[in-house]
Automatic annotation (TrEMBL):
<dbReference type="Pfam" id="PF00528">
    <property type="entry name" value="BPD_transp_1"/>
</dbReference>
<dbReference type="GO" id="GO:0005275">
    <property type="term" value="F:amine transmembrane transporter activity"/>
</dbReference>
<feature type="transmembrane region" description="Helical">
    <location>
        <begin position="42"/>
        <end position="64"/>
    </location>
</feature>
<dbReference type="InterPro" id="IPR000515">
    <property type="entry name" value="MetI-like"/>
</dbReference>
<feature type="domain" description="ABC transmembrane type-1">
    <location>
        <begin position="92"/>
        <end position="271"/>
    </location>
</feature>
<feature type="transmembrane region" description="Helical">
    <location>
        <begin position="96"/>
        <end position="120"/>
    </location>
</feature>
<dbReference type="GO" id="GO:0015226">
    <property type="term" value="F:carnitine transmembrane transporter activity"/>
</dbReference>
<protein>
    <submittedName>
        <fullName>ABC transporter permease subunit</fullName>
    </submittedName>
</protein>
<feature type="transmembrane region" description="Helical">
    <location>
        <begin position="219"/>
        <end position="238"/>
    </location>
</feature>
<keyword id="KW-0813">Transport</keyword>
<dbReference type="GO" id="GO:0043190">
    <property type="term" value="C:ATP-binding cassette (ABC) transporter complex"/>
</dbReference>
<keyword id="KW-1133">Transmembrane helix</keyword>
<comment type="similarity">
    <text>Belongs to the binding-protein-dependent transport system permease family.</text>
</comment>
<feature type="transmembrane region" description="Helical">
    <location>
        <begin position="70"/>
        <end position="89"/>
    </location>
</feature>
<dbReference type="GO" id="GO:0015871">
    <property type="term" value="P:choline transport"/>
</dbReference>
<keyword id="KW-1003">Cell membrane</keyword>
<keyword id="KW-0812">Transmembrane</keyword>
Length: 286
């Protein structure tokens, strides 16, 4: 068998396997698609309940209080109003809903799994190569099987975004758990604490700064998928940029890119502020 025959056989096997999974799991994938789409639409509905100026004001106040910086709060509110003035408020909220839902799902999986890997080195050794593979492959790769199984739409975009957002929070959570000083663990054990008390009173406070850094990194990875997700009809700013690229509408693509930068910077600063608060709480608990 030459190389060409092997490649053709391998491709045929992959296509057959994907077709078999799609045919036999159609009902399950339809259920997953409906659940993810429903979650996305619920978050988007909440974001669209109030007028743009109310949402901008709320986010501005939140930014001010979390960052303890009035200038940042005012700037956050004004830049969000700028997104509305450019006629991109709906797309901005769609992007925010996609990023928030995908990142939340990634945290719900990545943090507990990271804790387990931090406590069980054998599990960490098994998962690490998988994470290496995920972070090495081009993000476009995740879209292909997702499209085949879930079709076009926000659910496919959420799955692809979820995949790239899990590794950072998993790794940093696992690292935080493993980096707990042994002398503190031994001191807790000598004090008669049980396993749960040892975790919540010693391991978790030490790991919290690392976990919060992982949250920030996952959020940034999710934003990195926004434009790519526009290819599969995710809606939002990513789809606006993709459509502008196809029609060579440079002005529209720049408008959408500015809106993405605004959202990214605001959420990045909020995540950093939350991380700082987590570090302060960790130091106080020690």
């Amino acid at each position: 068998m030459n190389i060409a025959d092997f490649a053709a056989g391998f491709d045929a096997t992959v296509d057959s396997a994907l077709e078999w999974v799609s045919d036999n799991g159609a009902s399950a994938f339809d259920l997953i698609n409906d659940a993810l789409k429903g979650l996305y639409e619920a978050v988007l509905w909440v974001l669209n309940l109030a007028p743009f100026y109310v949402v901008a004001l709320v986010i501005g106040v939140l930014a001010w209080r979390l960052a303890a910086n009035l200038r940042f709060g005012v700037l956050s509110a004004l830049t969000l109003v700028f997104c509305a003035v450019m006629g991109l408020w709906g797309e901005t909220m769609s992007t925010l809903a996609l990023v928030l839902t995908a990142t939340t799902l990634a945290l719900l999986v990545g943090v507990p799994a990271g804790v387990a890997a931090g406590l069980l080195p054998a599990l960490d050794k098994v998962v690490e190569p998988v994470l290496d593979l995920i972070q090495t492959l081009p993000p476009y790769i995740y879209l292909l099987p997702a499209i085949a199984l879930l079709g076009y739409g926000p659910a496919t975009a959420m799955v692809a975004t979820f995949i790239v957002a899990v590794p950072p929070v998993f790794r940093l959570t696992s690292l935080g758990i493993r980096m707990t000083p042994k002398e503190f663990i031994e001191l807790g054990q000598a004090s008669g604490t049980n396993g749960w008390q040892l975790f919540f009173k010693i391991r978790l406070p030490f790991a919290l700064p690392s976990i919060m850094t992982g949250v920030n990194q996952s959020l940034m990875m999710a934003f990195g998928m926004v434009v790519i997700a526009g290819i599969v009809g995710s809606g939002g700013l990513g789809e606006s940029i993709y459509g502008a690229i196809r029609t060579l509408d440079i002005a529209k693509s720049i408008d959408a890119a500015i809106a993405i930068v605004i959202l990214t910077l605001i959420l990045d600063r909020l995540a950093q502020s939350a991380s700082r608060i987590g570090r302060e709480a960790s130091h106080e608990s020690r």
